């Protein structure tokens, strides 16, 4: 996963898997392929392997969300999946470490960035998450010439599928707003964000 730091402008090292998912565009997998893969992972899990339980849970949520929309998402063998919403790519990662929750990433070009304004905005979003009793938090890091915006999903926010979906939708909406701040000439619609509306998996 990303080595996280809240220090403005600090460069970080990222794994090849996450970076390749963020910048990859290709043909979406079919629902049958995704669900078949999910069933195989579920069958391979064991009560004696509690470290995979978070992945199994999140994978089941993704399949449930997919069943209500054109989304066809499931975790791969590394506990990672990617989808695109309004032409922004999002990557979900579920670590194997016990009680680690989940992470979600999006990335943007790091050009002409007002770092002070960006930090204030992220602080404001975290205060808002706290105000609505959400335990997840957002942050940003620099990876090459990209700003990587991330959400560290707390286990409390993945106890129910509805809560997990709403957490993802909050992050998607924040990412769209961040895109508009960083690219004012290419604004995207930030209204009515819903993962059960038509979206594209990559």
- As a whole number of angstroms, the C-alpha radius of gyration is 16 Å
Assess the beta-strand content as a share of residues.
Answer: 15-25%
Approximate shape: globular
| CATH topology-level fold name | Yope Regulator, Chain: A
- Taking the alpha carbons of the first and last residues, their distance comes to 19 Å
How are the elements arranged and paired?
Blueprint: H1 16-23, H2 31-44, H3 53-67, E1 80-85, E2 88-93, E3 102-109, H4 115-131, E4 137-143, E5 146-153, H5 161-182, E6 200-201
Helix pairs in contact: 2-3
Biased composition (Basic residues): 25-42
Region (Disordered): 25-51
Short description:
With 202 residues, this protein is of the alpha+beta class. Helices cover 38% and strands 18% of the residues.
């Amino acid at each position: 996963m990303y080595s996280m730091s809240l220090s403005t402008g600090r460069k970080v090292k990222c794994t090849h898997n996450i970076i390749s998912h963020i910048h990859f565009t290709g043909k979406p997998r079919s629902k049958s392929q995704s669900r078949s893969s999910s069933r195989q992972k579920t069958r391979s899990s064991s009560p004696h392997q509690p470290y995979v339980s978070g992945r199994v849970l999140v994978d089941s949520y993704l399949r449930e969300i997919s069943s209500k929309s054109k989304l066809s998402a499931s975790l791969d063998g590394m506990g990672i999946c990617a989808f695109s919403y309004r032409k922004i790519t999002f990557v979900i990662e579920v670590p194997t470490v016990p009680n680690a929750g989940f992470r979600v990433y999006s990335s943007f070009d790091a050009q002409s960035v007002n770092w002070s304004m960006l930090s204030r905005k992220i602080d404001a979003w975290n205060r808002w998450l706290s105000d609505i009793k959400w335990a997840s938090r957002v942050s940003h890091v620099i990876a090459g010439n990209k700003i990587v915006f991330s959400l560290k999903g707390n286990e409390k926010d993945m106890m129910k599928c509805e809560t997990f979906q709403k957490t993802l939708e909050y992050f998607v909406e924040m990412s769209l707003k961040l895109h508009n701040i960083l690219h004012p000439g290419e604004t995207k619609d930030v209204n009515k964000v819903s993962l059960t509306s038509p979206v594209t998996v990559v």
